[in-house]
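Problem 12. The chain below contains 145 residues. Write out its predicted structure in token notation.
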Amino acid sequence: MKSLELTTELTDQICQELMNGQPLTRICSKKELPSLATINRWIAKHPSFAKQITNARRVGTQYYLDKMIEELETMSAKDVGIVREKLHHYRWLAQKLLPALYGDKQEIVQDTKIEITWQQPEIKDITPQVVAGANGLARVKEFEK
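Solution.
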């Protein structure tokens, strides 16, 4: 249906299916729901709808992780290659959609101690003194260092 308007009920239905692990392409293939192009236009036009879709996809990622565990427990020896590829995809999806939980941990530890000290140099009096010589001429005498 191309003439659908964005409603709360429609948003809730789409988000509920996303949270149940359904891909958006499969959701949009249903006759009673809008096309993928329509949903993408709504995402671009309505920031609150875009946020709800993103949050629903994050919740739906948990479904994929549960599905991954089930497939691991029920796989046969001949399905190892297929299951490995699926698990790789599910893990990648979880890392991207839920980086705080499943992403690579990046930790920066700074253990730097900086100590700044200020030392005043000894100040010596180097002003010249006028000392009268034996011949009556004045000469300048500097203090030695």
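Discussion. Strands lie at 129-132, 138-141. Students who got a different answer should revisit the alignment rule from Section 12.3.
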